Each structure stands twice: as C-alpha cells, then as structure tokens.
C-alpha cells in the first residue's frame, strides 16, 4: 500500500485531497469526504456550528434604539403646538417680547439640540464620505423647500382660506430653514472629521472634548462671527414701509447710527437681515410688538400706543442669518451629548458628563444675564440664551434618559415617541393650523361652545 493510501486510511488528508474537497464543495458536488461527514451526525453538528460561528460576524446586529431620543423630539413638538395654540391666551408661556426666556423660547434650541444628538448617532460610521455629503446636502435642500413653502406665505389658512405667495413679501427664513442650516454645518463637520475620530478615549473628564475638538472649533468660529458682528458692526438709520397696519402703506424711519446696541431698533442682527434678505422679506409680526413701549396691553397683543416708536411697526426676522449662525452652537452642544452616548457605555458615566455640562451652561447663562453683560434673548439668539437653553435641554434629556432608558418606564411616553418618529408630519399639521382647526372643529350645539374657545 502506497503512502497516499495509508494516509487515507489513517484519516490524514493530503494537501491535494484538501484542495479537491474545497473545489468540489464550491461547485456543489458531494465527495466521499462529505459522505463520511453525513454518516456522522456529531461531525455534521460540529461542522454546522463552525460554519455558523464563521458567518456570525457577517450578520448585522440591530443597535438598540435610544427611546429618549424620540421622546425628547416628541416633547419638543408637543411644546411647540402648545405654545403656538395657547400662547395668545396665555402670554406668559408665549415668546418673550424681548429680553427674558419663557416656555415658548425653549422650542427652537430643543429642536437644534436633538438634531445634534441625532447627527452623532447617524454618522458614527461613515463608509463613504462622498455618499454621506450627498445625503446631507439633499436633506438640507428638502428642509429648505418645506420651510419656504410652509412659512414663506403660501398658506394663509385657517384664518383665510387663501393660498399663494406674494413674491414681493415672501419670507425666506423660518424654523425649518434654521434647522437646515445648523444641520448642514454640524453634519458636514462631523463627516469631514471622520478620520480624526478616536476609537477609544483617553483618561480624564475632558477627554471627550479634546477627542472632538474640531466640532468645538466649528462652534467657536460661529461664536466669534456672531460676537464680533453684533458688537462692532455699525448700524445706520433705516426705513421700512408698513404694508399690514391699515389700508394705505406708510413709510417709517428708525434713527440709529450706533454700534453694539442690543435693543429692538438698532441691533446688528436685524441690520444684517435687512441687508441680506431685504426689509420686505422679514417676519412682519415680531413679538416685540407686545412690549410696553408699543402697547398698553403688554404682555398681550393690542393696538399701538400713540407715542409708540416707529420700530414697533417694523418687521424683524427671529430666524435670520446672524441668529442662525449663533444657533449652530445649540447643534454643537447636542452633538456633544451624542458623542457621550456613543463613547460612554455606563449609565452613570453618561449622566455624569451630561448633567455636569448642563449645570455649567446654566450657571454661565445666569451670570451673563443677571450682570446685564449679555441678556437672555431669543430674538437675537444671544450667547447667554444659547447656554441657558442648551443647559436646560441637557438636563431634560438626562431626566428622560433616567426614566425611560434606565428605569424602563417607557409605556407612559409611547405617545411622545410616536410623535418624535413622525416629527415632520406633526410639524406640518401644527404649522399649517390643521391640528388647531381639527380640535376647534368639535363643539356642542353652538360653534362657540368649542373646546378651544372654552379654554380661552
């Protein structure tokens, strides 16, 4: 008996035999070797187990979704609907006429905060940068399109059943436009710095900051642009035509000629918007009309005082260019919370990072506001306002995380999660007045006995 036969009897596979078995198996043939394995159930089981173990890494495991993310987004949508529909009846929860911060003033920064968190989770793995950039640009364009359509003046419902855009007075800015800008900037920074991301963090509480220094550098650039422009740009006198107060349009002039002014009339934020968009394309009903200088009904809406300054009738864009540049910081704070969620696996580690940063931001904002250095102001999107609302968002997010993802009390928040997962749909229903019209459409005997009218 030759050497090859001895090897076969002893069960020792020659290199030649191994190769033939591999080739035959790849082509789908059954070899003698396969028959021997089929005759031995134990060998078959071990082979299947080995194959399963080899193929297991190829199967993509679904990541556990953080329910707090959707619940927080849903809470923000609910808050928006509440203040939009009830703010007129309860001005204490409506937007602050100028300095200060009310319940309504938390909506926009909460949106931007959760956008930042979502960006960190969505872009934690980027196989192809070009593909990611393409998706970011397309999503930005979609948000801009819907923003201009919904808030540019196309729909005048439910007050007037009219549709159409007066291109002479179209509003170019709005909530979705601001979200689009912040999303685009923060997401592109996250994408282009993908090769600089650490796989593991160094020791120390601040390691998460140094690991993502380029994201914070982008926020610093936005901060410097905003602060330098706000405090150094010269604001000259300016004029506007009031198309909405009375039948005949009337021209007014606002006297300025100053720098670093943070009041309604002569701030640099409004000046930049007037130069970029044009005064006729700004928001025509700014909340400063509820100031005591403008109406005796303050903080409610009401007719203008006879001695009201001319700027009371002027347009002002609360979602303008300069304030949107400052709003990038809200997205930067949000993406930091997302990075903490990715790198820190323990609940206590995450909460330590989140809560500590939230309280630091709140303390900075309170100091800036009450020393009159930089007052809280949503219309200007001041830095103190960024810190205050960003810190509040972090604290609320941490609280929801404890209740939903740690304690497991998810059922009471399923409604918020559903709204959060269908945020765009609910936003359209609210922005177009469809939701309010639906609720107000149910009445008892008389249309005046509706739920909304009863509450008001």
From TrEMBL:
The keyword Plastid is annotated on this UniProt entry: no
Domain of life: Eukaryota
Ranges where the record places region Disordered: 1-20
All copies of domain Heparan-alpha-glucosaminide N-acetyltransferase catalytic, residue ranges: 65-195
Keywords: Membrane, Transmembrane, Transmembrane helix
InterPro entries: HGSNAT_cat (IPR012429)
TM helices/strands, residue ranges: 66-83, 103-124, 136-157, 169-193, 214-234, 321-342, 354-371, 383-404, 425-444
Protein name as catalogued: Heparan-alpha-glucosaminide N-acetyltransferase catalytic domain-containing protein
Organism for this UniProt entry: Flemingia macrophylla
Source organism phylogeny: Eukaryota, Viridiplantae, Streptophyta, Embryophyta, Tracheophyta
């Amino acid at each position: 008996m030759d050497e090859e036969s001895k090897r076969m009897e002893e069960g020792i596979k020659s290199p030649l035999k191994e190769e033939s078995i591999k080739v035959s198996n790849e082509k789908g043939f059954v070899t003698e070797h396969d028959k021997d394995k089929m005759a031995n159930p134990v060998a078959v089981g071990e082979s299947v187990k080995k194959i399963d173990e080899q193929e297991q890494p190829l199967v993509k495991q679904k990541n556990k979704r953080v329910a707090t993310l959707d619940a927080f987004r849903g809470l923000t949508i609910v808050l928006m609907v509440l203040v939009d529909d009830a703010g007129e009846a309860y001005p204490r929860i409506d937007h602050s006429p100028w300095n200060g911060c009310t319940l309504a003033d938390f909506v926009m920064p909460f949106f931007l905060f959760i956008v930042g968190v979502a960006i960190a989770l969505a872009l934690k793995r980027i196989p192809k940068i070009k593909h990611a950039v393409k998706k970011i640009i397309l999503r930005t364009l979609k948000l801009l399109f819907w923003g201009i359509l919904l808030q540019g003046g196309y729909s005048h419902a439910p007050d007037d059943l009219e549709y159409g855009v007066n291109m002479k007075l179209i509003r170019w800015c709005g909530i979705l436009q601001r979200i689009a800008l912040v999303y685009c900037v923060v997401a592109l920074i996250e994408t282009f710095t993908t090769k600089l991301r650490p796989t593991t963090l160094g020791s120390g509480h601040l390691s998460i900051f140094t690991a993502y220094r380029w994201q914070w550098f982008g926020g610093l650039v936005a901060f410097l642009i905003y602060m330098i422009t706000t405090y150094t740009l010269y604001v000259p006198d300016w004029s506007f035509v009031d198309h909405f107060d009375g039948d005949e349009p009337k021209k007014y002039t606002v006297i300025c000629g100053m720098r670093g002014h943070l009041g309604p009339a002569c701030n640099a934020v409004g000046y930049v918007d007037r130069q970029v968009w044009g005064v006729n394309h700004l928001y025509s009903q700014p909340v400063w009309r509820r100031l005591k200088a403008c109406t005796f009904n303050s903080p409610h809406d009401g007719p203008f005082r006879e001695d009201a300054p001319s700027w009371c009738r002027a347009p002002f864009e609360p979602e303008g260019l300069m304030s949107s540049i400052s709003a990038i910081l809200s997205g930067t704070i949000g993406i930091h919370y997302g990075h903490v969620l990715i790198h820190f696996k323990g609940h206590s580690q995450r909460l330590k990072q989140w809560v500590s940063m939230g309280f630091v931001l709140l303390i900075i904002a309170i100091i800036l506001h009450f020393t009159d250095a930089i007052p809280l102001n949503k219309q200007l999107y001041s830095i103190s306002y960024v810190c205050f609302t960003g810190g509040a968002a972090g604290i609320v997010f941490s609280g929801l995380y404890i209740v939903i993802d740690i304690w497991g009390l998810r059922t009471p928040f399923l409604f918020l999660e559903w709204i959060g997962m269908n945020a765009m749909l609910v936003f359209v229903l609210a922005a177009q007045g469809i939701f309010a019209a639906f609720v107000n459409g149910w009445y008892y005997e008389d249309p005046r006995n509706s739920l909304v009218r009863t509450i008001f």
